[in-house]
Structures are given as C-alpha cells and as structure tokens.
Write a structure and sequence with these properties.
314 residues, mainly alpha, two-stranded antiparallel ribbon, 14 helices, 2 strands
C-alpha cells in the first residue's frame, strides 16, 4: 500500500513537471529565438568580409577578421586593454563599496549601529539606479560634477588643496571620471543585494562569535562573507556583464576621448559597425568581447566557488 502511494506521488510529480514544461514552452521558444538567432548570425557574419558600402565584395574569409583584430588593429588592442582596466576597477569598486555599506547598515548584528536612519539611506540609494545612464552622463556628471570651473569634483579638489583637475581633458582623468560614473550608477544594485543577504543571516551566530571573543572584522571574514558567497557571486557576475556592455555613458561623457583614452570596446565596435559599416569585422569584435565576458565570469565563479570559510576565533 505504501509502495503504491509512492508510485502515485512519483507519477503525479512527473505529470506536473510535463504540464509546467508545456506552459513554459512558448516562452522558452520565443526567448531562444530572440537570443540565439542574433548570436548565431553574429558568429556567422564574423567569418565574412561584409561592408554595406560594397555588398558586392562580400566573401567568406574564415578567421581573417580575428587575425586582423589581434595582429593588425592596434586601436582595438588598446581599446581592449582600456576595457579590461575599466571593468576591473569598476567591478572591484562597486563590490567593495557595496559590501562596506551593507556591513555598516547591519552593524547592529555585531556591534553599534553606525548608520542612523538606515531605511532612509536604503531608499536614497535607489536614486542612481532609477536614473537613466544617458541623463547621468550627459547632464548631471558632465555639467555638474566634472565641469572644470564650477563642477563638484573640482570644488572638492580645491577644498583638499589639490587644485582643479582636467577631468574630461586628460587621458588618465577621463578614464577615472568614467569609472567614477560607472561605480555611482551600479553601486545601488550591489548595496541592495548584499544588504538583503546580510540582513537574513541568523543573529545567534554573531552573538556566539562575540562570546568567543571575535572582533567585528573576524566576524565579517569568518561568518558573513562565507554565508553570503552566492550573493557575492551573483552581484559580481551582474556587475561584470553590465559594465562590459556599457555604451551610452562613455559615448555621452567622453565620446571615447581625449584621443582614444576612454574608447571602450562597445564604442569601438559601434564605430566599426555604424560609422565605417564594416559589419563582418565588427561582428568578429563582438564575438571577442563575448568571449572576454565569459572569461571574466568563469574566473569569478572559480574564485568565489572555492572560497572556504576561515575560522579566526577558535
């Protein structure tokens, strides 16, 4: 009798799975077409010499576009190196600042509550997330923050005794300005995700650690970080993908200049595709960027997936 009930439950579960899959199938098919077709088309076009000005010259050239990108196109290699620096610094900045603020917002779990009015602060953090990146880059940051004479950044520099800085006119400063804008735009996602992860942690573990004599830093390293590792990984992967594909902020804030100092890969691909109309070559560059994103995500998964909890207070 018991075996018969188990068989019936198993059959019922399989039936519900098939029913769920049936309901999901239309959406899965549509999403697959939307995502897979452009990917397959881009991969196929990357093996062709395809220019809209001379469509009669379209021809299959194999891996020549990829060879050209890595051996002949110095501007692309520079663009790729700038993108790597831009992504690394931006993602690390977003993760570190987001983690620090999340810890401070939940400091009462293992000490004094540092941030007063934490709920109001959480609400204020949403503002950069809901603001259009184009408005932030073209309006707020270009006109109000990095303006040379009356911008907020130079006002603070003067107060600190550094003097006015050419934020949008120097290669180093322009890249720094672009990174600051990216961190400001993406930081709310990191704060909200990590804050929610920290808030759900059981408080009794921190109380036990306090009794054992652990400091606040030891509790963060030994208890909090291992416990929120899945959220850290999700946040890092999200930030990597968002930062790599960023286009409008770089286009409106610096336009890739001065020179090519802030010409990230998205700007360079845009220039090749829509200004020079080299569709075949631009698709090859897009595939290279996709592989680079995959490499960053793979390294992140490997790094955070193997992190072990460290006991500092035994």
């Amino acid at each position: 009798m018991k075996h018969k009930k188990q068989v019936q439950k198993s059959l019922s579960f399989e039936k519900s799975q098939k029913l769920t899959l049936g309901f999901m199938s239309p959406s899965l098919i549509i999403v697959s077409i939307i995502f897979l077709y452009p990917l397959i088309y881009a991969l196929r076009t990357s093996f062709y010499r395809y220019n809209l000005v001379r469509p009669d010259r379209t021809a299959f050239i194999g891996f020549d576009n990829y060879v050209r990108a890595f051996t002949q196109d110095q501007r692309f290699l520079r663009s790729m190196s700038i993108t790597v620096i831009y992504v690394l610094v931006s993602v690390v900045g977003v993760m570190v600042i987001g983690l620090i603020i999340a810890v401070l917002l939940n400091r009462k779990r293992y000490g004094k509550n540092v941030v007063k009015g934490g709920n109001y602060f959480r609400l204020a953090m949403i503002v950069p997330a809901v603001m259009a990146p184009a408005a932030a880059a073209g309006g707020l940051f270009r006109a109000a923050v990095f303006e040379y004479e009356y911008g907020l950044a130079n006002y603070l520099c003067v107060l600190l005794g550094i003097g006015r800085q050419p934020w949008l006119f120097s290669p180093v400063h322009a890249l720094a300005a672009l990174i600051i804008l990216e961190v400001w735009l993406r930081m709310p996602y990191s704060i909200l995700i990590l804050d929610a992860a920290v808030r759900r942690l059981p408080q009794d573990q921190f109380e036990c650690a306090t009794i054992d004599g652990a400091s606040g830093f030891q509790k963060v390293v030994s208890l909090m970080l291992p416990a929120i590792r899945p959220q850290l990984l999700f946040t890092m992967v999200l930030q990597i993908t968002l930062t790599f594909r960023q286009f409008d902020t770089a286009y409106l804030l610096t336009g890739g200049g001065p020179g090519d100092s802030t010409r990230v890969m998205t700007l360079y691909i845009y220039d090749e595709a829509l200004n020079r109309l080299n569709f075949g070559y631009s698709q090859a560059l897009s595939v290279i960027m996709l592989v680079l994103v995959g490499l960053f995500v793979f390294i992140s998964v490997k790094f955070l997936g193997k992190t072990e909890a460290v006991s500092w207070y035994k």
